[in-house]
Amino acid sequence: MAAAGAAATDLEVVRGKRAALFFAAVAIVLGLPLWWKTTETYRAPLPYSQISGLNALQLRLMVPVTVVFTRDSVPLDDQEKLPFTVVHEREIPLKYKMKIKCRFQKAYRRALDHEEEALSLGSVQEAETMLAEPQEQAEGSLTVYVISEHSPLLPQDMMSYIGPKRTAVMRGIMHREAFNIIGRRIIQVAQAMSLTEDVLAAALADHLPEDKWSSDKRRPLKSSLGYEITFSLLNPDPKSHDVHWDIEGAVRRYVQPFLNALSAAGNFSVDSQILYYAMLGVNPRFDPASSSYYLASHSLPHVINPVESRLGSSAASLYPVLNFLLYVPELAHSPLYIQDKDGAPVATNAFHSPRWGGIMVYNVDPKAYNASKLPVRVEVDMVRVMEVFLAQLRLLFGIAQPQLPPKCLFSGPKSEGLMTWELDRLLWARSVENLATATTTLTSLAQLLGKISNIVIKDDVASETTCAPLRRISTRLTSSGSRFGTWIQALSSLKSRSLQPRSGCPSTGGTWTQMLGVLSATSSRLPSSA
Q1: Helix, strand or coil, per DSSP, at residue 311
Q2: Which residues of the chain have pLDDT under 70?
Q3: Quick check: bond before 134 cis, omega within 30?
Q4: Is the peptide bond before 220 cis (omega within 30 degrees of 0)?
Q5: Which one of 58, 115, 148, 223 has the fewest beta carbons within 10 angstroms of its own beta carbon?
Q6: Are 505 and 430 in the same domain?
Q7: What is the pLDDT of residue 464?
Q8: Residue 147: Cβ within 10 Å count
């Protein structure tokens, strides 16, 4: 009996060991893969090699320039050589990983009959109007008309003329090296009307080292799908001043034409408000010599924060807000003037803050206090005010005065406040800015995922993280026949993608999605050239 009991006990021990081994095997074979699958960080494959190759992108921005020679503009021997094409290419010296080259393709030809007739008129404005009638020029292109050296079309002391359209007029020269001399002058005019180092530096300011470019280069607003513009009238002393301003009429007459011309850069909304008892937050200093008050230049940055808390527009806005403030100083601090760094009064009595807006101080005529009791009725001169605000608006968008060559007659902006070639230059800069931002976003995403291993990458994020649109843009730009219209077509290819943010995407993926949306919106507003 004892032997039988011992055998049964040994059998139970063996069965227990086998059961333990079986359960261990099941746990290893089934449990371990199940645990691994349920705790793993899913990462859809990303094109890391293509992303790393974005740093080697090269942009060749081509500017087609048509050079039209009239009779007696160059020696007869040179006229017989027409037509022909000359290419001038130079690299923009920026400390940026993306190489940018600007290529001017100059196509020389003789003037047609209607062009000869137009350039024989009495004034360059009449000639420009007649030349624009047959057909409009392609976006991003320029046309330079070379007239006789002694033509009365230009003032005698002027060698060239830059108009509001995409045209310029230049005097010829009777010299054996006429084409070489005129070619250098054409490049000077084309650079004034097209891309320059400063324009691209301003567009890439956020991507360049700060020691290379001063803070003034950071003035332009960043590219966005839309902008909100707010005009505010600040009346800190309503007991003394009854201020009236026709802001609706001023916006309709002066601001809206400018925004319509600038519509390719984004959507705009305009509103206005009147704020009473709104102070600047900085105590002006009294000048006994002039019996007036002044704001020193070093105190101007401290003016914005106290006023901004009263505006209340930027907190709920999805787009950048541009604030334009008209400040009527209180009677106790009138008249009030703004001083520059040298202590001299600013002619416009206004200043602007980059990427924020501008403030103008509007002093009441001292004679008004002698003629009536308080409060004094104040009618704001909206023409003078809008001249300042439009100039500030141009600066905020990076539309600065061009660097003209010597002895160049400049027509100034059209009635819309924006010249056609200024819009072309702005769209060039915005396109380069958007491309640089998209490239930086993709590169940063790849670096972040390499450092943090537990970030989930879903399939929808991976499908949106693609370098194909940027590659197509780069390929078209580096081709020898690329033009402004080709650049637009390359950008337009982004519109075919559905780029709506999805739930569960990391913030970097959302940023890339938004960036491609801005890039697509920019291309949708740009007209394609023929």
Answers
A1: helix
A2: 1-8, 133-136, 210-218, 313-316, 371-372, 464-530
A3: no
A4: no
A5: 58
A6: yes
A7: 66
A8: 26
Bridge partners of 85, per DSSP, are 107
Sequence-distant (≥ 6) Cβ neighbours of residue 87 within 8 angstroms: 103, 104, 105, 106
Q: Is 463 left (phi over 0), alpha (psi -120 to 50) or beta?
A: alpha
Picking from 74, 269, 31, 259, the residue whose alpha carbon sits closest to that of residue 178 is 74
Contact 439, 189 (CB under 8 A): no
* C-beta of residue 232 within 8 angstroms of C-beta of residue 275: yes
* Alpha carbons 390 and 256: distance in angstroms, whole number: 11
H-only helix segments in 397-501: 420-451, 459-464, 468-478, 484-492
Alpha-carbon radius of gyration of the chain: 33
Q: Which residues in 281-315 are b (16+ Cβ under 10 Å) and which e?
A: ebebeeeeeeebbbbeeebbeebbeebbeebebee
pLDDT at 520: 42
Same domain membership, residue 382 and residue 262:
yes
Structure confidence at residue 467 (pLDDT): 60
Residues 374, 333: contact at Cβ < 8 Å?
no
Q: Percent helix, strand and coil across the chain, each rounded to 5?
A: 45, 20, 35
CA distance readout (Å), 22 to 10, 14, 17, 18, 275: 18, 12, 8, 6, 81
Helix residue spans in 312-466 (DSSP H)? 368-371, 382-396, 420-451, 459-464
d(CA 348, CA 385): 9
Q: What is the pLDDT of residue 482?
A: 43
Alpha-carbon dihedral sign for residues 323, 324, 326, 329: positive
The separation between the first and the last C-alpha atoms of the chain, rounded to the nearest angstrom, is: 108
Contacts within 8 Å (CB) and 24+ apart, 248-253:
248/272, 249/382, 250/382, 250/385, 250/386, 253/386
Task: Report the C-alpha gap between 107 and 116 in whole angstroms.
Answer: 18
Residue 191 included in any domain = yes
The whole-number pLDDT of residue 216 equals 53
By residue range, what is the domain housing residue 499? 48-54+421-525
* Separation of alpha carbons 530 and 522, rounded Å: 19
Nearest alpha carbon to residue 303 among 351, 364, 248: 351
Q: Where does a domain end: 396, 411, 444?
A: 396
The reply to whether 138 and 284 lie within a common domain is no
- The verdict on 108 and 257 lying in the same domain is no
Fill in the amino acid letter for 529: S
Structure tokens at 17: 């060991």
What pLDDT score does 253 carry?
A: 93
In a domain, 413, yes or no: no
How far does Cα 507 stand from its chain's mean position?
A: 24
